[in-house]
From TrEMBL:
<feature type="transmembrane region" description="Helical">
    <location>
        <begin position="206"/>
        <end position="228"/>
    </location>
</feature>
<feature type="transmembrane region" description="Helical">
    <location>
        <begin position="20"/>
        <end position="49"/>
    </location>
</feature>
<dbReference type="Pfam" id="PF01970">
    <property type="entry name" value="TctA"/>
</dbReference>
<feature type="transmembrane region" description="Helical">
    <location>
        <begin position="147"/>
        <end position="167"/>
    </location>
</feature>
<feature type="transmembrane region" description="Helical">
    <location>
        <begin position="316"/>
        <end position="335"/>
    </location>
</feature>
<keyword id="KW-0812">Transmembrane</keyword>
<feature type="transmembrane region" description="Helical">
    <location>
        <begin position="355"/>
        <end position="375"/>
    </location>
</feature>
<feature type="transmembrane region" description="Helical">
    <location>
        <begin position="471"/>
        <end position="488"/>
    </location>
</feature>
<feature type="transmembrane region" description="Helical">
    <location>
        <begin position="61"/>
        <end position="82"/>
    </location>
</feature>
<feature type="transmembrane region" description="Helical">
    <location>
        <begin position="387"/>
        <end position="405"/>
    </location>
</feature>
<feature type="transmembrane region" description="Helical">
    <location>
        <begin position="109"/>
        <end position="135"/>
    </location>
</feature>
<feature type="domain" description="DUF112">
    <location>
        <begin position="20"/>
        <end position="438"/>
    </location>
</feature>
<keyword id="KW-1133">Transmembrane helix</keyword>
<feature type="transmembrane region" description="Helical">
    <location>
        <begin position="434"/>
        <end position="451"/>
    </location>
</feature>
<feature type="transmembrane region" description="Helical">
    <location>
        <begin position="411"/>
        <end position="427"/>
    </location>
</feature>
<protein>
    <recommendedName>
        <fullName>DUF112 domain-containing protein</fullName>
    </recommendedName>
</protein>
<keyword id="KW-0472">Membrane</keyword>
């Protein structure tokens, strides 16, 4: 009941004309970047961080959330019409969606993707509104040892989830943790790793790191690989609307996809890719006509798209309640909160209730905006694919540099931006994930201070971390998550040797 009252107050904030404008800008940008292959919501939010530095925090965060939701919607358009997913989570949609388009059913494929996304995001956002306060009540009772255990889970799961191997993820995290140590230590006032540079005394700016790694790194990588796509999108033939049979075959996959996507998105090792594959496998097993799979089964579009968008709302549960990002976009959104000196977690709901509930309410509004935008304006989004990639990435490069300099006019800041851009390029070149670096920079100093507070309270005895059931359980989970991938890899090699 309290959640409902808070949500009603949140709608009062979200329906403010300025916030409505921010939501509209967010969903437009999000859909556009979702459509464009290779430019995801993480890159877009990173690019806008310096630009929104002096804007209203509530409006900026509403815009970032709109970009996230829009990116999930837009990725299905290119997956269906071009067989090139705009987002990694739309890979599964391409399997059946593109086959439907080739058979002249691109319209119903786009319609079931858009309506399924709407239904899933609506249900999942309601889940966010009602489950988040319950998790907050538990998290408020956490001590410093519990928070340290939670940070360990975040470090390990983020490192294991992103990237091709846990070791590469941990290496990226180590870089972020090292960067997080730079500056003045808040507990002792001592300078750490500043190397006599006055600009480094305040630490590394999260916005500079995010823009350098995501925007500059991506531009340099694309330029180095000459990743130009000459394939042309397929024309939409016939009506865009679904037949009665399409509706009958789609509504159950929408609900099942939501049921799979939301809880997995909310897990610390979640993300949108896993639930979309699970949903596709489930629909294939439950289908009335399994022989259609691989040739354009509408269930193979409806279920994964619902799972994709439900997981986006699920990702916001640990981000808002615990401050844990479970996707690259969530990691950059965490940097957005930090930009306004806001720390996501249980205290955020107590100290800034209007901002949090306004953000949650705006997600419902953004969802309606996206449904209205996606179905009638499919032709417009497809035209975006005609923008030459060299022009697109050159514009991103200029925009990134200008935005960073406008927020922090300093030669050192520009040098750091270029340095992080080169680091991002090298990491992409050798397949190292970049999101753990941002997570390490943001959460590293927090984990450091919580550990030291716990040790101060125990007079230096590290066993305090294992004496409390909550922290002991979380440390055990983090250890298991760290060791398990290496064990599985070792077992696989052992079996290969036996064979």
């Amino acid at each position: 009941m309290d959640s409902l009252i808070h949500l009603m107050h949140g709608f009062g904030t979200a329906l403010d004309p300025m916030n409505l404008m921010f939501a509209a800008i967010g969903v437009l940008l999000g859909t556009a970047v979702g459509v464009l292959p290779g430019i995801g919501p993480a890159l877009t939010v990173a690019l806008l961080l310096p630009i929104t530095f002096k804007l209203d925090p509530g409006g900026s965060l509403i815009m970032f959330a709109g970009i996230y939701y829009g990116g999930m919607y837009g990725g299905s358009t290119t997956a269906i019409l071009l067989n090139t997913p705009g987002e990694s989570a739309s890979v599964v949609t391409a399997l059946e969606g593109n086959q439907m388009a080739r058979r002249g059913r691109g319209g119903p494929a786009l319609a079931t993707a858009a309506i399924g996304s709407f239904v899933a995001a609506l249900i999942a956002t309601a889940g966010l509104a009602f489950f988040a306060p319950i998790l907050v009540k538990v998290a408020v009772k956490f001590g410093p040892w519990d928070y340290f255990g939670l940070m360990l889970i975040a470090f390990v799961t983020v490192s294991a989830t992103f990237g091709s191997s846990p070791l590469r993820g941990l290496t990226s995290l180590g870089i972020g943790l090292w960067l997080g140590l730079i500056g003045i230590d808040q507990l002792t006032g001592q300078t750490r790793l500043a190397f006599g540079v006055p600009n480094l005394l305040d630490g590394i700016e999260v916005t500079t790191l995010a823009v350098g790694l995501f925007a500059l790194g991506e531009c340099l990588f694309v330029a180095s690989r000459h990743l130009f796509n000459d394939e042309k999108p397929m024309a939409i033939k016939g009506s865009i609307w679904m037949s009665r049979e399409d509706w009958r075959r789609s509504w159950k996959p929408w609900l099942r996809g939501t049921a799979v996507g939301f809880p997995i998105g909310a897990l610390p090792a979640g993300g949108a890719e896993i639930p979309t594959f699970l949903s596709y496998t489930m629909e294939r097993k439950l289908a009335e006509k399994p022989e259609e799979f691989g040739q354009g089964a509408i269930e193979g579009v409806a279920g994964p798209e619902a799972a994709n968008n439900a997981s986006a709302a699920g990702t916001l549960v640990p981000l808002l309640t615990l401050g844990l990002p479970t996707s690259a976009t969530a990691a950059v959104m965490l940097a957005g909160f930090q930009q306004y000196n806001l720390q996501p977690g249980p205290l955020l709901f107590v100290q800034h209730p209007a901002l949090v509930w306004g953000l949650v309410a705006s997600l419902f509004i953004a969802n309606i905006m996206l449904l209205v935008l996606n179905l009638p304006l499919v032709g417009l989004w497809v035209r975006l694919l005609k923008i030459p990639l060299p022009w697109l990435y050159a514009g991103i490069l200029v925009f990134a540099c200008m935005g960073t300099i406008a927020a922090n006019p300093s030669v050192v800041e520009l040098m750091l931006l270029v340095g992080f851009g080169l680091l991002g390029f090298v990491m992409r070149r050798y397949d190292y994930p970049v999101a753990p670096v941002v997570v390490g920079l943001i959460l590293g100093p927090l984990a450091d201070s919580q550990l030291r507070r716990a040790l101060q309270m125990s007079l230096g005895d590290p066993m305090i971390l294992l004496q409390h059931p909550g922290s002991a359980t979380m440390i055990a989970i983090a250890t298991l998550a760290l060791v398990a991938p290496f064990l599985f890899k070792g077992l696989a090699r052992f079996r290969q040797d036996e064979d």
